[in-house]
């Protein structure tokens, strides 16, 4: 079915290209330098690295914007990590818009949620983990998405064929688990394996200062659990994708300078049903010291009912962050943050900064430090992977 | 008929100038200017922002704007950024309200994320320009208190000069002096005074064009910051009125697919 779908889209796309009068290409090409502070835990893992990436987007609309076609290919060529070198179709879809409903068919990307430190509720797209350890980069997901826009809110219905497996660094790569992940040996709880068709529904609405979303997902878990195995005398981790049901709530109250945020999920299918949550605030000081600079202070609590047995390192953690926006011509920004494990004091610190150079260039700086990591914490694998990264991107 | 209308206007002018306090006269001018703006329905337009610093370095932003008039409340608007290229596809949705804080959402295309943002940042810079959010937001009569100051020449026209003081204490200004031409009630010039009551910026409107035989829009809006030496020139093109936009074109769903 997926192939047939893609074929139809390529046809739609072909006719869109053929009459490309209104169509347009945009995108970027980027070079990334990543410098690791320490030598790797495993001497098979690489040191400093250079990586190239590019993303293009073709977009065309017709019928006065009532119909549109979008194609977004992505590619990365990595100097050292063979699994980080990869290509993906982020988007390849056709959308039709009507008075109170919309339909999107094809490969797409959808974001749900409100919090900053992690995205529990966001589940439609698989994480492209090799791209960034923060998990914010996503793989394209095939979907039929039907949206109703009504007075009582927005209702999105999803049918999601073609499961995507999470990407993981190769054995030679950095920022990986101590035992590397055997990505080619993934196991599934469902006999349909990756052919299982997932489904999801989300209702969202705004009530004055409040933005609310309630969602349910039924299908293959995007985050696998791992089963240790021996492969050619080495310990590896086999990703096991179970079938889950996840009901979720995301909530934001925008009260003047304060944004109050909450995400809660209840999931069954991976052992006992459990609850996980992220909640907190972002408080912004506008124009500090009579300047144009805004300073946002963020605090979030990260909770997972499973405690230490949770697959996530963030089960009883506190995130503290500061966001500077210079509001200058170069759109200079800086976000510094720290996640502290309240049980064992393990800390992850990160800095992300960016500014535009001229009209078409952008420089991004990123650094992550793992410090005081407890040997029982799942972040122990990253103990020696402190890194600083500079990315220079050219936009067209 | 024409004569009687002229007479009525004459009586109105006399009554306002003789009997009204400067506050009443200022308010009447603002109400008349607002009345002449009422009924435009919706507009779409392309905006170019040319930012220049005191060293003459330039940068440009391309933005498309869609505005919907909402009866009894402030306008709804959507701004879609085309350039700089790194922010292409970013879109900003705003519901202005006559009273109380506005509702604002920002769409970040790289993450496909819609963020509800605080509208407290009225005095903050819009896209690094010399225009603050409050300068580009829809101007509702209720957002200021008014005072007629004097009559003054303005180019080929004759203008009312009124002072308007922002009601919202979060405004970056103590007061604004507005030159409004007597013929068509269009703003021609605005002097902005900062919180310390010193002259901060001057905005000049140029190249007014009339649409649908009623609504005036300036082709250019030139903002000069007297304290930093920076300037921003807004150039408008491709103005269209009553294009058939509805409330449905101004929600989070349409924000996500705004192009």
Structure description:
The complex is a heterodimer of chains A (396) and B (259). With 396 residues, chain A is mainly beta. Chain A has one domain (2-395): Porin. Chain A contains 1 helix and 21 strands. Chain A has one helix at residues 2-18; strands at residues 24-36, 49-62, 67-78, 86-97, 101-108, 141-150, 153-160, 187-188, 198-207, 210-220, 225-231, 234-241, 243-255, 258-268, 274-285, 294-304, 316-325, 333-341, 347-357, 361-371, 387-395. Chain A has an 18-stranded antiparallel barrel. The relative contact order of chain A is 0.12. Chain B has a domain at 22-65 and 120-243: Lipoprotein localisation LolA/LolB/LppX (outer membrane lipoprotein receptor (LolB), chain A, Clam). Chain B is built from 4 helices and 13 strands. Chain B has helices spanning 2-19, 22-37, 133-136, 252-256; strands at 42-52, 58-68, 76-83, 91-95, 103-108, 113-117, 144-154, 157-166, 173-181, 187-194, 199-211, 215-225, 231-241. The longest helix of chain B has 18 residues, at 2-19. Chain B is globular. The N and C termini of chain B lie far apart (49 Å). Chain A binds chain B through residues 26, 28, 59, 61, 65, 68, 95, 97, 99-100, 102, 109-111, 113-114, 136, 147, 149, 154, 204, 206, 211, 252, 254, 256-259, 284, 286-287, 292, 294, 327-331, 356, 358-360, 362, 393, 395-396, and chain B through 51, 53, 59-60, 83-89, 101, 103, 111-118, 120-121, 123-125, 128, 172, 248, 251-253, 257, 259.
């Amino acid at each position: 079915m997926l192939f047939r779908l893609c074929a139809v889209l390529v046809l739609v796309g072909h006719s869109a290209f053929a009459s490309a009068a209104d169509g347009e290409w945009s995108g970027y090409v980027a070079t990334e330098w990543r410098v690791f502070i320490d030598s790797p835990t495993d001497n098979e893992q690489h040191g400093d690295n250079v990586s190239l990436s590019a993303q293009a987007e073709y977009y065309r609309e017709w019928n006065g914007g009532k119909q549109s076609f979008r194609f977004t290919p992505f590619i990365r060529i990595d100097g050292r990590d063979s699994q980080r070198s990869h290509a993906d179709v982020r988007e390849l879809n056709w959308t039709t818009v009507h008075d109170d409903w919309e339909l999107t068919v094809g490969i797409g990307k959808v974001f749900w949620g409100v919090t900053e430190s992690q995205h529990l509720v966001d589940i439609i797209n698989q994480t492209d983990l090799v791209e960034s350890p923060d998990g914010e980069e996503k793989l394209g997901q095939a979907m039929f998405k039907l949206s109703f826009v009504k007075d009582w809110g927005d209702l999105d219905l999803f049918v999601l064929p073609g499961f995507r497996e999470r990407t993981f660094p190769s054995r030679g790569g950095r920022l990986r688990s101590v035992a590397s992940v055997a990505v080619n040996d993934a196991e599934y709880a469902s006999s349909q394996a990756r052919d299982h068709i997932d489904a999801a529904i989300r209702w969202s609405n705004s009530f004055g200062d409040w933005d609310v979303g309630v969602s349910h997902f039924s299908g293959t878990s995007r985050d696998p659990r791992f089963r240790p195995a021996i492969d050619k005398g080495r310990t590896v981790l086999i990703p096991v994708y179970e079938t889950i049901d996840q009901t979720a709530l995301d909530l934001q109250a925008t009260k003047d300078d304060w944004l109050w945020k909450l995400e809660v999920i209840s999931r069954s299918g991976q052992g006992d049903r459990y609850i996980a949550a992220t909640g907190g605030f972002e408080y912004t000081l506008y124009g500090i010291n009579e300047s144009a600079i805004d300073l946002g202070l963020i605090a979030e609590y990260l909770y997972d009912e499973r405690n230490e047995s949770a697959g996530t390192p963030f089960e009883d953690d506190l995130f503290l962050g500061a966001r500077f926006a210079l509001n200058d011509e170069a759109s200079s920004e800086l976000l510094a943050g720290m996640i502290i494990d309240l049980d064992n004091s393990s800390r992850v610190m990160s800095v992300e900064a960016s500014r535009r150079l001229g009209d078409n260039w952008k420089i991004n700086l990123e650094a992550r430090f793992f410090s005081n990591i407890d040997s029982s914490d799942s972040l122990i694998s990253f103990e020696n992977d402190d890194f600083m990264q500079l990315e220079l991107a050219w936009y067209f | 008929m024409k004569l009687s209308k002229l007479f009525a206007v004459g009586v109105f002018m006399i009554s306002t100038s003789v009997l009204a306090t400067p506050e009443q006269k200022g308010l009447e001018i603002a109400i008349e200017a607002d009345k002449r703006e009422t009924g435009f329905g919706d507009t779409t337009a392309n905006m170019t922002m040319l930012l220049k610093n005191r060293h003459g370095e330039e940068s440009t932003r391309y933005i498309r704007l869609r505005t919907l008039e909402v009866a009894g409340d402030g306008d709804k608007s959507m701004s879609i950024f085309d350039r700089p290229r790194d922010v292409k596809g970013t879109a900003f949705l705003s519901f202005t309200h006559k009273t109380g804080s506005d509702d604002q959402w920002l769409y970040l295309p790289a993450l496909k994320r819609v963020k509800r943002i605080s509208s407290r940042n009225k005095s903050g810079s819009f896209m690094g320009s010399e225009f603050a959010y409050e300068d580009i937001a829809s101007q509702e009569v209720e957002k200021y208190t008014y005072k007629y100051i004097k009559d003054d020449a303005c180019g080929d026209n004759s203008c009312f000069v009124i002072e308007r003081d922002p009601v919202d204490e979060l405004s970056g200004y103590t007061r604004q002096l507005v030159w409004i031409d007597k013929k068509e009630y269009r703003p021609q010039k605005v002097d902005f005074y900062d919180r310390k009551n010193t002259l901060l910026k001057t905005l000049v409107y140029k190249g007014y064009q009339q649409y649908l035989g009623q609504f005036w829009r300036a082709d250019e809006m030139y903002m000069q910051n007297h304290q930093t030496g920076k300037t921003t020139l807004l150039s408008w093109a491709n103005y269209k009125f009553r294009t058939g936009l509805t409330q449905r074109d101004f929600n989070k769903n349409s924000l996500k697919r705004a192009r």
